[in-house]
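Supplementary notes (optional reading)

For those who missed the lab, this is the record we used. Protein: DNA-binding transcriptional regulator, LysR family. Length: 332 residues.
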Amino acid sequence: METLEQLHKQIRSLSFFDVQVFVYLGKYLNSKAVAAELEVLPSKVSRSLSAMRSVFNDKLFIRRQYNFEPSPLAVQLYPMMESVKSNLDRMVPVVMGNQGKEQRERQKVNLAVPATLSNGLTSYLLEAARQNGEEIDISLRIWSGSLNSDTNSDAIDLGVYFSAVPVKGAESEFIAYSKSTCVVAAKSHPLWQQFDRFEEVIFDYPFVVTECASFNDAQDPMEIFAKLNGRDLNIRARVNTLDELVSMLGHQDSFSFTGGRRTIEFLKANECLNVRLVPSQTRRRIHQGIGNGSREPGYYLTYKDRQTCPQWLLEALRCYIHDSLEVEDLLT
């Protein structure tokens, strides 16, 4: 049985987003409608509901055949949650007016991420800042160099890296495992006609490496995989931006591996390119060769000084990474 103090602490941990999810679930009784209202993926709504269920030790909204049904506790809590949301909504014009009179100095944050997370990230974080009533100056760079030397210098305040294991010497916070890998090539590439023999034929074509700090700064997993199969990998180029990747793939016989929701959206918008999921068995075998058994590589957050990183910014990055893992609906 939780003490009153423990329950107070857990309830105080709820975010304004959780309050919004609760109120809109009570209003619409449908998670997709809530996601549309808040302009987020349904998976983010599900994570919020799961967290609130844990806090209140109650199902709150029970899934039925077509919609949710509120539990008795949810019915009791709804007026209070709605009041909290209304009061916070009313703060916005007050705060905006105050900011107009007294502009606060914006904090500058040097942020480094893999190319696969870069597309649309700045606008996402600026919107998160606006929703939190914050001002921030984000300097975004693609992270493709030495992770330790960058984090030990003034070049980076905050970074996200992709790796099979946490990097030694860097203060790291695990965010999520990668769920999938995609292969991208020109629509005219012969690989698509041979996809049922994917693992046999991939070494017949030049490969473009998209550089990621830690993950492949020394050697790309495909180089190891080729050696394990007694083949040579023909690396045509190493790139560190999506624009460079597109230019190398558009009308040539090269292919590459990539991932991330915004990256897939960016690549699919190019009429010359095709994107498909790498077969799961091939993906597992590639991972077995990178010194970590068959465990998935994952995304890690690292910082020079955590105390100087705004909590809302860290949470926004976590949410962005989780959302970026949802790609299957783009490839069906």
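If you only remember one thing from this example: The first strand starts at residue 61 and ends at 63.
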